[in-house]
Hints:
Layout: H1 6-12, E1 17-23, E2 36-41, H2 47-55, E3 73-78, E4 82-86, H3 97-113, E5 117-125, H4 132-144, E6 148-153, H5 160-174, E7 185-186, H6 195-205
Parallel strand pairs: 2-4, 2-5, 5-6, 6-7
Antiparallel strand pairs: 1-3, 3-4
Helix pairs in contact: 1-6, 3-4
Amino acid sequence: MVGFDLDEAQRFFRQPVSFERGATSLEHLPDADLPEVAFAGRSNVGKSSLMNALFERKNLVRASSEPGRTRELNFFVMGAAMRFVDLPGYGFAKAPKTEIARWTGLMRDYLRGRPGLKRAFLLIDSRHGPKPNDLEIMDSLDGAALSYQIVLTKADKPSGKELEAALAAARTEISKRPAAHPEVLVVSAHSGVGLDTLRAEITALA
């Protein structure tokens, strides 16, 4: 971890947070006037649940059991300090291929060219480890030289051995990638494991 004070991170996350807007094209993005962090991951990896847990809010970020529900870039503002971006899930969605291609392209364009984007947090299900779709996104992030950090979600679900295997696979993968942050985070929106560490990482970026 970056060595940021956990108490300071808790104070930072007590600021009011609100939904700002959803963007279906680059022209609809808010001004890049705040530092931003983005959350990316396969459909149903738990992005919405994790963000709600970080903010200690139940329904601020819409969660759904239907993969692929998020089809735009959703922006949230915390105080006047930081912007959080919920990106469309990739890998599976009940939508026409043309629609999937549109929002996947929008996500990639945002990640490649957004001023003020400090880091992308790449969420990966701890029960499965990195999948081919995750590796494709990592290739894009490496190509854009955008700093990203792997976050293994749903850490309360797998067995200890399964979690260790996913962690080892993630560490092996990032060891050969130039834009990847060297530390893999392990979190659970349900149990709260790892949330303080993730908050501290984000606070340091602000």
